[in-house]
UniProtKB/TrEMBL annotation:
Keywords: Cell membrane, Lipoprotein, Membrane, Palmitate, Signal. One of its GO terms (biological process) is response to toxic substance. GO terms for cellular component: membrane. Belongs to the EcnA/EcnB lipoprotein family. This is Entericidin EcnAB. It comes from Rhizorhabdus wittichii (strain DSM 6014 / CCUG 31198 / JCM 15750 / NBRC 105917 / EY 4224 / RW1). Residues 1-20 are annotated as: Disordered.
Length: 75
């Protein structure tokens, strides 16, 4: 009993035809979506970076205080 492979098992996604926008309106809509996604992504990255930099600043400040206290104790 040989089973035939399913028709979807042999489809290579890289060889599927891609759909390109046909009209100016479709191209403009795609452009707007791309800009919106980029804006949201960069906004999230900026918020995350601010929190990370703030945390790093606190860590450096804490380390500086520890070094300063150690220096004062060794006098």
């Amino acid at each position: 009993m040989d089973r035939e492979p399913s028709p979807t098992a042999s489809i290579d996604p890289m060889q599927l035809p891609s759909r390109k926008p046909q009209s100016i309106q479709e191209r403009f809509a795609m452009f707007k979506r791309t800009i919106a996604v980029a804006f949201v992504s960069l906004s999230l990255l900026a918020v995350t970076a601010c929190n990370t930099v703030e945390g790093a600043g606190k860590d450096v400040s804490s380390a500086g205080r520890a070094v300063s206290d150690a220096a004062d104790d060794s006098k």
